[in-house]
Automatic annotation (TrEMBL):
Its EC number is 2.7.13.3. The keyword Translocase does not apply. The chain crosses the membrane at residues 18-37. Residues 191-275 form the Histidine kinase-like sensor domain. GO terms for molecular function: phosphorelay sensor kinase activity. This is histidine kinase. It comes from Paramagnetospirillum marisnigri. Keywords: Coiled coil, Kinase, Membrane, Phosphoprotein, Transferase, Transmembrane, Transmembrane helix. It comes from the Bacteria. It catalyses: ATP + protein L-histidine = ADP + protein N-phospho-L-histidine. The keyword Chloroplast does not apply.
């Protein structure tokens, strides 16, 4: 029963191991694809951030170039006003000069020279009513305070052209610092908004031009409802811009309250910031598409692994059940064989005593009736004596058969079969001349096995062959890793007449037919089996029979001999 428990525990461990292995493989597949998906998500976010950085760098140059061109136009006009202080209002020559300047800067919608209270002195290309005042505009009122420089006004709808423009203004002062006029250039926002909208990331990206105080100046996509709002409390102006003039961040922005990846750049020389942002949901949507493709790969792999694991585990459980049943049958068979061996051994041993009693009294009876017994009485007494001796010798042979392989230690060595055959012939007390005439041996090989048992095999083979009335001829040939021996039995052999079986008291076991050597064939087969070979007979077409047996060439593993002998016994 310990063998049964070991087999069961071993199989359970195997089924558990295959289950754990399958779970580990599935976990590995899912973890690997999860890592790939996570890495892909981080890669998409980083790629989008880099794209925003590159686009912000490009747009800050574009917007900065436009603002610098407008600043140069304003500086040129201011210098002209310093040189020609007596230029009359709406002077056509001065207006022509303004038109030439605007023609060189396509992004400018117009230029204006205003009085400190906001009335028009000069304007191009339109000529507004002189009575119209824009003194309430921030790009005019800011210069009433001394020390003001270039100023970006709030984006407005021009009262003259009815289009969105970005006013940029500077103060024209006398040497004493008195404000004489305000020079303003109107930058076209339609073109800037269109540019921002054309290069933004789709579908929900946004690009904005902000004043440093948080006022939105231009945006793509354009939204007029945002143009009059201040976003000074947004994360860009409240947190990041005070820390660095450029950078990137991921946060909910103030313009639309969405999570965005944003990059910003402060335009050098102007209180303006370019912000490029992409919706986080857009990047996640791309990642979800990639994750779905990965899932379509990982899920079949995981399902295939689960199915293979379930199939292997079911096979292991079935094998466990079969091994459990086989172990029980083997255990029952071992118990039955042990009981049978004990019964046979005890019977053979205990029958010796009544046989000795019968033999003793038979001898006494023979001596008593020897002188005056008639012929029939003497014949009967001889039968009793012969039968008793025959049973005694058969019981002794049975004991030898049962003891074979159990009470001797199997020590495999390289044994020359030629020397064993010669020793067997000498042990049979046959004259060497007669043996040479009646036994034909080829060049016998060296086999691996127990020398004592192989010597017994040679002895019993000669005992079997002695019953023939012809020359004993032993042949040998190699077959793979085995030596194949053949011994022909003549047609007149008593073994052949009895069927040449391997029964314990069958052919070769009777005194009269086998020279008084019982169990020879059964002992030969058992010895061959203990050495890993086999023995069988073959009927010949011309009559007679061929006895076959095989023995190993190589050296067997000593660890396998004991279990093999126990199974054979």
């Amino acid at each position: 029963m310990p063998a049964l428990t070991n087999i069961q525990n071993k199989t359970i461990r195997a089924s558990t191991r295959i289950l754990m292995f399958g779970v580990a493989v599935i976990t590995f597949i899912l973890a690997t694809f999860s890592y790939i998906a996570h890495d892909r998500r981080e890669h998409l976010l980083e790629r989008q951030r880099l794209e925003n950085d590159r686009l912000a760098d490009t747009l800050v140059l574009q917007a900065g170039g436009t603002l610098n061109q407008a600043k140069m136009v304003l500086s040129t006009i201011s210098d002209r006003l310093h040189r020609d202080r007596a230029i009359p209002a709406f002077d056509p020559i001065f207006a022509s000069d303004l038109g030439r300047l605007i023609g060189e800067v396509p992004m400018l919608a117009g230029v204006r020279v205003l009085t400190p209270d906001g009335r028009y002195l000069h304007s191009y290309p339109e000529r507004p009513d002189p009575t119209v005042s824009v003194g309430d505009r921030d790009y005019v009122s800011v210069h009433r305070t001394p020390g003001s420089g270039i100023f970006l006004g709030q984006a407005i709808v021009s009262r003259v052209s009815n289009t969105w423009v970005l006013p940029i203004s500077i103060a024209h002062r006398d040497p004493a610092g008195k404000l004489l006029a305000v020079v303003a250039a109107m930058v076209r926002l339609e073109q800037m908004n269109a540019l921002f909208d054309s290069v933004r990331s789709r579908p929900n990206g946004a690009i904005g031009l902000f004043r440093a105080d948080g006022r939105l100046l231009a945006r793509g996509p354009f939204d007029s409802s945002l143009m009059e709002k201040s976003f000074a409390n947004g994360p860009l102006f409240k947190t990041y811009l005070p820390q660095a003039p450029k950078g990137s961040y991921t946060q909910v922005v103030a313009t639309d309250n969405k999570l965005r990846l944003a990059s910003y750049r402060l335009i050098e020389g102007f209180p303006a910031v370019v912000s490029v942002s992409s919706a986080h949901d857009d990047v996640v949507a791309l990642w979800q598409a990639d994750a779905l493709r990965l899932l379509m790969i990982a899920l079949p792999l995981a399902l295939a692994t689960a199915w293979a694991t379930w199939l292997l585990r079911r096979q292991l459980l079935e094998r466990e059940a079969m091994e459990h049943l086989l172990a029980r049958h083997s255990s029952d068979l071992e118990l039955a064989n042990e009981e049978l061996r004990q019964v046979a051994e005890v019977s053979a041993h205990h029958l010796q005593e009544p046989l000795r009693t019968v033999l003793s009294y038979s001898q006494l009876l023979i001596r008593r009736v020897a002188a005056g017994a008639d012929t029939d009485m003497q014949e009967y007494v001889a039968f009793i004596r012969s039968g008793t001796f025959r049973m005694k010798r058969q019981l002794e042979a049975l004991q030898r058969y049962l003891a074979l392989g159990l009470h001797t230690r199997f020590e495999p060595t390289r044994v020359p079969m030629a020397s064993l055959m010669h020793e067997a012939m000498e042990n049979l007390q046959r004259p060497s001349e007669a043996a040479a005439d009646s036994v034909t041996l080829p060049t016998l090989p060296v086999v691996t096995g127990d020398r004592q048992q192989l010597a017994s095999l040679c002895h019993h083979l000669l005992c079997v062959a002695e019953s023939q009335e012809q020359t004993i001829h032993l042949d040998v040939a190699s077959e793979g890793d085995m030596w194949h021996f053949t011994l022909p039995l003549s047609q007149g052999s008593p073994l052949l007449h009895q069927g040449a079986t391997f029964a314990l008291f069958g052919a070769g076991s009777d005194f009269a037919t086998a020279g008084g050597r019982p169990l020879s064939l059964a002992l030969c087969r058992k010895i061959v089996h203990l050495h890993g070979g086999r023995m069988w007979t073959e009927a010949l077409a011309a009559g007679g029979m061929l006895l076959h047996f095989t023995l190993p060439m190589g050296r067997p593993d000593p660890g396998d001999i004991g279990p093999m002998m126990a199974q054979a016994s």
